[in-house]
Specification:
Blueprint lengths: L2 E7 L5 H12 L4 E3 L8 E8 L6 H5 L3 E9 L1 E3 L8 E4 L7 H9 L3 E5 L8 E2 L2 E2 H6 L9 E14 L3 E8 L5 H12 L3 E11 L2 E2 L6 H9 L7 E2 L1 H4 L4 E5 L4 H5 L4 E2 L3 E4 L3 H6 L5 E5 L2 E9 L7 E7 L2
Parallel strand pairs: 3-12, 15-18
Antiparallel strand pairs: 1-3, 1-14, 2-3, 4-11, 4-12, 5-6, 7-10, 8-9, 10-11, 12-13, 15-17, 16-20, 18-19, 19-20
Helix pairs in contact: 1-6
Length: 307
């Protein structure tokens, strides 16, 4: 079994726990998620199965969208509702415009320090494991991108709901913490749902019970997305059947053997490395790119074989 499942993660279970559930349901040995979602959070969590794990990074790198509730007036050591309070402010008063202005100040590329309680590794151990041992290691700051941020509702005096579209690696808990610091009263994440990862949305996600039911009825196709269909943002190229052996052995293929492409070859050659799906003999072969050469036509090369 190979492909991707758009799992609707319930709250109260870790992302690794979701992977283990899916492996048990489907009796498969190889599976992995496409970006950690906090245990108390819910929402979209695509799970790659079998050879589908080879495209996990491509899905993980896509934009993600969340709806979050932040609570003002306190900071916690975990930056969410489950942590211990480490700062408290009782004297503050904000309105909708105040919140909107601060949210907009986070739009664009920002420097963010991940939570101390996170899955980031430090000398072979997870940061949250070290924190539980009383060893508090502050993770390195990183640059992330907030593509869009919008206030959805303000529940005076201390809660607001907002929507975020962001890059891979963004911690929404850290965003809540930093919004609180900017306002001067502290804040923590009190609710989170991931509504989208790339083309994977809530509307086309499946619960554990649905996946189990379809599997038991031998209707796996209801929830399992083929590997190439999961790469919806990739253009495709079809190569002459005679080039099949050369393709799967990693040999460069002259562009004259390309039969069809969803993107003009000239456009792809003008870019440094546009990745696309390669088909040959009516099969999805893998992911490849076009390489410039002294020959003005260039060459086609396989980057990741997925047969």
């Amino acid at each position: 079994m190979h492909g991707v499942i758009n799992v609707l993660k319930p709250p109260g279970i870790s992302s690794a726990g979701v992977v283990n559930h899916i492996k048990n349901f489907l009796n498969c040995k190889k599976a992995g998620h496409t970006g950690t979602l906090d245990p108390q959070a819910a929402g979209v969590l695509p799970i790659c199965i079998g050879k589908g794990t080879k495209i996990a990074n491509y899905i993980m790198s896509q934009k993600k969208t969340y709806i979050c509730e932040a609570t003002l007036g306190k900071e916690t050591d975990t930056d969410d509702i489950e942590g211990n309070v480490i700062f408290k402010c009782d004297n503050f008063s904000y309105n909708e415009k105040d919140i909107e202005q601060v949210l907009l100040s986070f739009k664009g590329d920002i420097i963010q320090v991940p939570p101390i309680y996170s899955a980031i590794r430090y000398k072979g151990k997870r940061s949250y494991e070290l924190a539980r041992e009383g060893k508090y290691i502050t993770p390195k700051a990183r640059t992330v991108t907030i593509y869009d941020i919008e206030l959805l509702d303000f529940f005076s005096p201390n809660k607001f709901l907002f929507k975020i579209e962001c890059s891979k690696g963004t911690y929404i808990r850290s965003l809540c913490r930093d919004i609180g610091k900017t306002l001067g009263c502290g804040a923590y994440m009190s609710f989170l749902i991931r509504t989208q990862t790339g083309e994977f949305e809530l509307d086309n996600s499946f619960t554990f019970d649905e996946i189990k039911c379809f599997y038991e009825k031998d209707t796996v196709d209801k929830f399992l997305i083929p590997i190439d269909k999961a790469l919806t943002n990739f253009n495709s190229i079809t190569v002459d059947d005679e080039q099949f052996e050369r393709l799967i052995n990693g040999s460069p293929i002259h562009l004259k053997y390309i039969k069809d492409s969803t993107l003009p070859i000239e456009v792809q050659l003008d870019t440094n490395e546009v990745l696309f799906k390669i088909y040959c003999k009516n099969k999805f072969i893998g992911i490849g790119f076009l390489q410039k050469n002294n020959d003005t036509n260039g060459y086609l090369r396989i980057k990741k074989l997925l047969l």
